[in-house]
Amino acid sequence: MNINQKLESLKKSKFRSKFYLTEKDKEYIKEKGMDTIKRHAEDFILKRLAPYPTPNDGSQTPWRGHPVFVAQHGTATCCRGCLEKWYHIPKNRCLTKQEQEDIVEIILRWIEKKSKS
Question: Which end of the chain has a smaller Cβ tally under 10 Å, C or N?
């Protein structure tokens, strides 16, 4: 996956481009640091997105409450339906370790970009 190309593609989506980090989110990121944010993202993806069948698919990612949740909606990594549509990852199997790593990486890149704006 070319992350830069995918982020550019997502920016063209009216729905995906409306997501942003609040000042509270940015403060949380500053306070916790990106290493902690990465661990949170890895944990959320492992528990909420990677398994099959996926628990509560389509509603497993809250809209706010953590910068990773916001980033998941902004990067279309919020549910298996979005992963299938945007990344061509089939819904009917567990995510591979590499897919999980790629998803975490795009989430972190999105957070880094949005936390500077």
Answer: C
